[in-house]
């Protein structure tokens, strides 16, 4: 993405199309690309309006990290990209105890794309009145490795704009919870998507519109966040200059 990225000037298109419907406009793509995109879309199940929220008392979760070949079972919570937590009874391998009402957020991904798609996937109930954030004591994410990463930069800015930064807790060991709330994934790569997934992004977008005098409330702008100006990925992105050119017109 360009180095000027600043959420205070970020405007999202509120009219998100239902990508599983036949009338989704793919005409801007060449024919071969249209076929590829349609094949990908066909793999996804639309779970809009059908997501669940599970609640547990005195439950322990042990992080297992990424397990690409694990078989799903009732004692596992599987997040996107095959990151897994094992559910256990009271005291199961628990190194810590967290009191109060905890919302399970999944795994905290330190890569920006994975953060936007995966780390936000279980936060949807906060932004459609299914859960009152004031009734939640903390939102827990598990670390993808043995460290406790510092939340900073765009990641921290995102949580601040979403009004949940003060609730975030990251853990990396088996932990017991007094009350644990586990929402379904609102987006799961190659499996499912839902309109609920966009809740947090619409919340942030509306907040920026209301606070930023430069944001026109009438016009919706679509913004491409390109990586072409980042030295760390220079030469690693195939045809990135061509992509920039195509989206510039």
Strand content: 15-25%
> Which sequence of SSEs, written as H and E, runs from N to C?
HEEEEEHEHEEEHH
Strand order of the largest sheet: 3-4-2-8-5-6-7
Kindly, what is the distance between the CA atoms of the first and last residues, rounded to a whole number of angstroms? Answer: 18 Å
Give the helix tally. 5
**Average residue pLDDT:** 82
Helical fraction: 10-25%
Q: Radius of gyration, Cα only, in angstroms?
A: 19 Å
Please give a structural write-up.
- This protein is α/β, with parallel strands linked by helices.
- The protein is 20% helix and 23% strand.
- It contains 5 helices and 9 strands.
- The protein has helices spanning 31-42, 112-119, 153-161, 199-211, 240-247; strands at 45-46, 53-66, 76-79, 83-88, 96-107, 138-142, 168-171, 175-183, 192-193.
- The strands form 2 sheets. Strands 3-4-2-8-5-6-7 form a 7-stranded mixed β-sheet, with no helix packed on it. A two-stranded parallel sheet has the order 1-9.
- It is globular, with a radius of gyration of 19 Å.
- The two termini are 18 Å apart.
- Mean pLDDT is 82; it is low at 1-23.
A few lines on this structure:
Helix content is 20%, strand content 23%. The chain is α/β, with parallel strands linked by helices and 249 residues long. The strands form 2 sheets. It has a 7-stranded mixed sheet with strand order 3-4-2-8-5-6-7, with no helix packed on it. Strands 1-9 form a two-stranded parallel sheet.
Which short descriptors sum up this protein?
249 residues; seven-stranded mixed β-sheet; 5 helices; 20% helix; 23% strand; globular
